[in-house]
Task: structure prediction
Amino acid sequence: MLTEKHALRPELTSTRARDVLLALTGPQLFVQFTRDLGWSSEELAAWITPAVLEQMVGVSPGGALRPARAGPAVDLKPRPRAGQGEPVATT
Result:
């Protein structure tokens, strides 16, 4: 498991990490890149691997841990969905 080697980025909850991982490695992305855009499985894997490491644990493509970001932290808390919590404005 990825978190056995590196801790998740501090601002990333385990639920949000699951969501990011699904977005980057889910079947929809695979089909879109390989079937629709013509990427090979190897090309996609070569792109996804560093993207997952960067987004999940802050490891740069060279393998070093990325230094903590300066400035305000990014709000990665889930937002309420329509019908859950705060009302959603419609136009």
Residues 67-77 have pLDDT under 50 and may be disordered. Residues 80 and 86 are 7 Å apart (CA to CA). DSSP finds four helices and no strands in the chain. Helices lie at 2-5, 14-25, 27-36, 41-57.
